[in-house]
Amino acid sequence: MTTREEIQERATAAFEELVAALAQGNSEQLTAYLQTMSRFHQYSFGNCMWIVLQRPDATHVAGFQRWKQLGRFVKSGEKGIAILAPLAFRKKRTAEEERGEDQSPADEDNPEKPSRRVAGFKVAYVFDVSQTDGKPLPEFAAVNGDPGDRLERLEDVIRGYGIELNYEPISGGALGVSEGGVIRVLPTLLPAEAFSVLAHELAHELLHRGERRKETTKTVRETEAEAVAFVVCQASGIESRTRSSDYIRLYAGDKELLQQSLEHIQRVSTAILLQLQEEPKAVAAVTEFPAEAHESVAV
């Protein structure tokens, strides 16, 4: 059986590898991803609620013309997702338009930002990426490898902390969610990706559910959780270097922040790895888990 010292050495080596990856900057995949995502309009809270109510599994939505610009087209027969778009009151040179009779909706590519004074609202329609075909959108780097029985062991580790684990659909495009005593993960993930997401959400539960949560920012929390996931994955034969470094950069994390959180990352990743080598029935919690629940954290 691997000793604690050997596991700590593995964790340290993996941590240093992640620091080096962050120092290299964005990967080509992340650059392409960010360039594409910047073309998706950020909708108001009210419209986000409308989108979720009509299509809970929606991830990326855009108007008909924007999808064409991105090299995709809406499939025949697809029903649009209704949102509210402001009517722009446009004053032009004609007398008719000067009287305010020219009221037209804002551009569907940015339906909530009229070019002039808002005179009212009308229904506009957007479509989720799942309703379109065409050129693939850039994606995050993949997690590769086969966790084998370690996936089941990690599930046992999570339950050993008294945390409920559910595989179920999640709205908003998240792969997993930590809700303070409950972890939810998409049931459609491949084993390697599920392993990485579970490690990430377990890190949130162990690091960010007590009083320390008040002392951290979202950037700190996401950096720490993904760093723990990377260390656990690397020590388990799962390759996630590019994925983890890109994820941390997406949340504005960097190597300096990673170094500041070194103690927390090493403590939790070592605890998880030690438990992964135990027999499932022998898994026991090594970190006190606070009973109170806080706001959910998604990945």
Q: What is the compact description of this entry?
A:
This protein is an alpha+beta fold and 299 residues long.
Q: Kindly report the spatial arrangement of strands forming the biggest sheet.
A: 1-5-3-4
Give the topology string: H per helix, E per strand: HHHEHEEHEEEHEEEHHHHHE
Q: Span between N and C termini?
A: 32 Å
Broad shape? elongated
Q: Averaging pLDDT over every residue, what do you get?
A: 81
> Which spans have pLDDT < 50 for at least 5 consecutive residues?
100-105, 280-295
**Number of helical segments?**
11
Proportion of residues in helical segments: 40-55%
> How can the largest sheet be summarized?
4 strands, antiparallel
- How many strand elements? 10
Radius of gyration: 23 Å
Number of domains: 2
Strand content: 15-25%
| Protein structure class | alpha+beta
Q: What does this protein look like?
A:
The chain has eleven helices and ten strands. The strands form three sheets. Strands 1-5-3-4 form a four-stranded antiparallel sheet. It has 299 residues and is α+β, with helices and mostly antiparallel strands.
Question: What labels would you give this structure?
Answer:
single chain, 299 residues, alpha+beta, 4-stranded antiparallel beta sheet, 4-stranded mixed beta sheet, 15% strand, elongated
Give the topology.
Blueprint: H1 4-23, H2 28-37, H3 45-54, E1 61-62, H4 64-69, E2 72-74, E3 81-89, H5 95-98, E4 103-105, E5 117-128, E6 132-134, H6 150-160, E7 164-167, E8 176-178, E9 182-185, H7 191-207, H8 218-235, H9 241-250, H10 255-260, H11 262-276, E10 297-298
Parallel strand pairs: 7-9
Antiparallel strand pairs: 1-5, 2-6, 3-4, 3-5, 8-9, 8-10
InterPro entries: ArdC_N (IPR013610)
Domain N-terminal: 3-108
Pfam family, one: ArdcN
